[in-house]
Amino acid sequence: VQLVESGGGSVQAGGSLRLSCASSGFTYARYCMYWFRQAPGKERERVATISSGGSRTYTDSVKGRFTVSQDNAKNTLYLEMNRLKPEDTATYYCAARPDGICSFQPTYWGQGTQVTVGS
Predict the structure, then answer these.
(1) Which residues contact 80 (CB under 8 A, 6 or more apart)?
(2) How far apart, in whole angstroms, are the C-alpha atoms of residue 110 and residue 92?
(3) DSSP string for residues in 72-83
(4) 48-75: pLDDT as tens digits
(5) What is the mean pLDDT of the chain?
(6) Beta bridge partners of 35
(7) Of 68, 102, 98, 75, which Cα lies nearest the Cα of 4?
(8) Are 4 and 108 contacting, i.e. CB atoms less than 8 angstroms apart?
(9) What is the pLDDT of residues 19-53, one digit of tens each?
(10) What is the pLDDT of residue 25?
(11) DSSP strand E in the chain: where?
(12) pLDDT at residue 38 in the model
């Protein structure tokens, strides 16, 4: 299984970015896909989750600003991030779990992509 993130970069506060995560070797009827982030000196935080059934969850700090989606035909996960804030600065990781139990930790991880939001 390989997960490859892209789309990170630097943006001013209030701006937008869209992260992508291309997956390969991950074909399951039931699964969970996640976006995590980790800022320097802070613990890793789950940002968003989407299940094979289409259920979505978000951490409170991004609700109303971030949207997780997937294109199954392209095997790609997305994270649309709007109204970005400096506190959104972090390395963002794509992750996946093959059994659909989304409350559990992921099994597979990408290498991460950096998002930096200037004030």
Answers:
(1) 16, 18, 66, 67, 68, 69
(2) 9
(3) GGGTEEEEEE-S
(4) 999 999 999 999 999 999 999 999 999 9
(5) 97
(6) 48, 94
(7) 75
(8) no
(9) 999 999 998 989 999 999 999 999 999 999 999 99
(10) 93
(11) 2-6, 9-12, 17-24, 32-38, 45-51, 56-58, 66-71, 76-81, 90-97, 108-109, 113-118
(12) 98
86 three-state secondary structure: helix
Q: For the chain, give the number of residues.
A: 119
For 72, list phi and psi in degrees, rounded to 5. Answer: -65, -30
Q: How far apart are CA 1 and CA 59, in angstroms?
A: 26
Contact 68, 48 (CB under 8 A): yes
Per the CB < 8 A criterion, the answer to whether 36 and 29 are in contact is no
Contact, 116 vs 10, CB < 8 A? Answer: yes
* DSSP states of 42-55: S--EEEEEEETT--
Q: What is the pLDDT of residue 94?
A: 98
